[in-house]
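Exercise: predict the fold of this chain.
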Amino acid sequence: MMKLSLDHKNHIPLHVQAEQLLRNLIKDPQFANGKLLPNEVDLAKQLAISRTTLRQALNKLVYDGLLIRKKGIGTRVAGTAVSSKSNNWLSFSQEMQTRGIPIKNYELHVSWVHPEEIIANFFQIAPDKKILKLERLRGRPEAPFVYFVSFFHPRIGLTGEEDFNTPLYEMLEKNHHIVVNLSKEEISAKPASKFIAEKLEIPQGDPVLFRKRFVYDQGERPIEYNLGYYKADSFVYTVESRRDQ
């Protein structure tokens, strides 16, 4: 194992130093492709810190989606997993850009459809009124990992000729003066249908993370009804809760 150490005389807390050391450590090529990190006992001993202090640092990296811990196996680098936080409802392009993750658009389809009852009820429109449907297959340059289906309220005035390769909410604000202000989400797991399996290049029936997103404007009027199907091994969804004082 490579030589690792912390500065015990430094004013920076040991768990913070350990976290930074781990962030640098997991960038090393030897830990790519999911190789296990040194076990906690050996690592804590080498750093001359308690396992509790080490776990503080490890837990932060697990929360950030950089490490994956499995009981009885150990801790490994998460590799290509993409992380999304529940309090971050930027458009997908903006969210990935803030994380420095390059994104490729594999497919983009625009159509006009009659909404299903659940969508018509969400938008509070008649089911015989056509709405714009946007379907996008997106992912890293190596492979796709998410299939999005979005429906938009006709009030927005979308024509279907917009450049949907640009960040969605930036485009809505610039071209249609729509400012998104609220997002509500539902997360569940479900088996991949034949259609989704083919899009994500996974076996039919494999688990996918299914995310419903309901987006509203500043007046809390519904703007977008979005469905996202994520490859389970390529996406981490993190939740942060803070108790009000």
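Check your answer against the key: The longest helix spans residues 51-63.
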